[in-house]
Fold these 2 entries.
Entry 1:
Amino acid sequence: MTDNFPHFNAELYSPDFESAVQMLAYAVENYPERTAIIYEGDQISYREYGNCVAGMAAELAKFDLPGERVVMLNPNSITSAVAAYAIWAAGGQIAQLNPLYTEREINPLVEEIKPKIILCGSEFKARLLPAVKKSGASDLLILDEGSLNLTHWRDGADVSLPTPFPNGDDPALFLFTGGTTGVPKGAMHNHTSLLMTGRLLQASWRVETGQEIFMNVAPQSHSWGMCSSILMPVLTCNTVVTLPKFHPQLVLDELVHHNVTVFAGGPAAIYNAILTLPDLVSADLSQLHLCFGGGSIFNNETVNNWRQVTGNSIYVAYGMSEMAPIAMHRTGQEPKVGTVGLPVYRSEVQVVDLENSDRILPDGENGEFRIKGPNMLSTYWNRPEETANTVRDGWIYTGDIGHFDEDGMVVIADRKKDMAIVGGYNVFPREIDEILYAHPAILEAAALGMPDKYRGEVIHAFAALRPGAEANEEEIIEYCRQNLAKYKVPEKINIIDALPKTPANKIDKQQLRQIALKHD
């Protein structure tokens, strides 16, 4: 399916920009006194934002960053946002690490990237020192201290952003893939790719310029956090309320206090956690009109409960570190639950046979999605073989299995690597997940294929129950028998307090796999 995007009025689009820095310069010039970022009781205007970026960029320019990589480790904050644009303004490429990463996870990433310098909050200095020595970085700079303290520029005279701005083809960002298996790969994106990501989201979701208040809860190190806290608000000259980490009650309080209009949300776990709050029903969310989701299954119950309590639909997007968005629900159309919407404008999405990628499959038949578009990665950093395996003849082979439905909507069945073969039958654990999520007692669930000497693989599932709900393994297995073919029914169901999550708030199936192996 190709270019089936309804062409919206051109006034909905921001002007064309060559780079993210030029995009910021436009917002500073046209909306200088509009609040850009709100964070923990502090806030910064676009004029101050531009001054701080210009000042920090001048400091970073001392390290001759054009073409160089800069590692950053810091939670969401005003300083982190300023540092991202300052690195770009100084000509560097950002490789931002998740603050939840341990020293063991950090070291191989930094060694592989070989950054020119490293920026971090003071609390991360000890965690990064071993990586500094091994990677050969020339310096470790502490954000909000010494020459990088934002107070130097916030209240001073206006400072112009350095020129020339980066070009569209200049490398801008590393987005690390997954992290649940092996060492994450660094998907490299240039400025054009970043800007197209924001532009496609803006067009599909009709975000108004200079009139919205975003809320972001995803880490800035994640593709969605980068987009919803750094790119989209600046592209649309809007305000963003950003939080250091996800906490359901804090999110609700801030949604109400700041009259948030656009909730960036994320995986279904985010929405499910907020839905458990007793005071959600009485909260004044009358200003909220756009809620976005992605990165997980959104079942009917989550979507319907959210709509019933808040009056808002959840618009789901499908993307990956290599290219985002790929497909999404669009405002103006009621989201179709069970799908991730239509392919975005200027993208190409095809479903191909798992054994023969030259064979394009008809609607309704499951195969692997392959994609191409103006927002795709340029390469994996230092991984030529993996780049060649993933990007073939200009197409990204996603490893996601699914199909187009009768309305042209993208339906994700599962990850190719997660598919289990039970007694010779192909089983997609995600289908079982959806059945489990429909059980009234289950809050979250995950199924996975596990080795079995008789059938090759069998299905093991994990479930966490809703507060106050009761159910046991036998009852849930019987429920599965009523809703699934015999070979798809889980052999075991482990009921646990909560399912482990990755730093991106997705269910961590690798950790569940280790738990399952211990129980066998």
Entry 2:
Amino acid sequence: MDKRISTPADAVAGIQNGATVMIGGFGGSGAPIELMHALIDRYLATGSPARLTIINNNAGNGHVGIAAMIEQGMVAKMICSFPRSADPRVFTERYLSGQIALDLVPQGTLAERIRAGGAGIPAFYTPTGFGTDLAQGKPVAEFDGQSYIQERWLKADVALIKAETGDPLGNLTYRMAARNFAPLMAMAATRTIAQVSHLIEPGGIEPETVVTPGIFVDAVVHVPNPAQEEDLNRLKAHYPEVTA
């Protein structure tokens, strides 16, 4: 099955109001900037999708990517580990004014909750967070004399991820640290959309090097020379561009 989609705009066209969206990236590394900005363009043109729940390891930086989505008012809730970044002003302002909710999750727990969602494991126990505010309202159990709190899986309607190489069947490889959460998110989402820097013909990826098999990917869009979040923030970019 050919999973190629012509443009980022076409790829994100089916995301609905109120959707839960996992977005790959560790800080700026591996962030699918073009997919996020295409989603912003659609929101500005149609008012949809709104009231999104975003799952990522941070709440955005500067005025691009996730921060730009929050700034436009598209996001109702963030589930993340690091709500404060080098320049977290967009999220901070909206959180303090009650315009966005936050579910703070320790990073190891976040990764495991996403993995559990993809593996079909509804819940698991971890000692991380026991005895802190993060444990409030969660079931507690004792194993071998140590206390653990129960954490629930995380699943999403859509995952937006970035890969280095992909083929029309959806098989993906990643570049170094840009891999981060993407393989787990691809498994935990009902629909996975991948932007790839290099799109090659079927059979062009050695089977042993495939990280995300195509069975977990629903759409592939070719984005050569993708924007890097760090570069955009270094240039003090603002999406969409602010004009006088």
